[in-house]
Amino acid sequence: MKLIILSVHVIVCLGLILIILLQRGKGADMGAVFGGSSQTVFGSSGATSFLHKVTTLAAIVFVLTSLSLSVFFGKRSAVSIMEGASKAPAAQTTEAPAPVPAPTGGEQNNP
């Protein structure tokens, strides 16, 4: 089940990228003023509504597959990484630490 949803998710991702790249931007008509071509793939008015509907459908499928993948792969068992570690005590030294000499009045600490 996870593999099927993951496959659909990847296909929808690639399709969504291609669909968005096919759409014209809002400033695309500005190029026609300076001699640009006004040819469209889907006709003069049909491209906007058709691509808008396909983009909306692909976005809905993308969100649903994202949520379902997060539910499937988010369920992890609560296992600690320290579960198999031994509880050995820390190494103890028999010697007492050496006392730190106090600074005398004649010395200056210059950082």
Sheet/helix structural class:
mainly alpha
Kindly state the mean pLDDT as a whole number? 76
Strand content: under 5%
Quaternary state reads single chain
Poorly predicted residue ranges: none
E-strand count: 0
Total DSSP helices: 3
Helicity range of the residues? 40-55%
Categorize the overall geometry. Answer: elongated
- Over all CA atoms, what is the radius of gyration? 33 Å
Give the SSE string: HHH
Main sheet attributes: strand count, strand direction, barrel closure: none
Distance between the termini: 65 Å
Please characterize this protein's 3D structure.
By secondary structure, this protein is mainly alpha-helical. The protein has a domain at 1-24 and 48-73. It has helices at residues 2-22, 30-33, 46-74. α1 (2-22) packs antiparallel against α3. The protein is elongated and about 85 Å long. The relative contact order is 0.12. The model has no long low-confidence stretch (mean pLDDT 76).
Short description:
By secondary structure, the protein is an all-alpha fold. It has helices at residues 2-22, 30-33, 46-74.
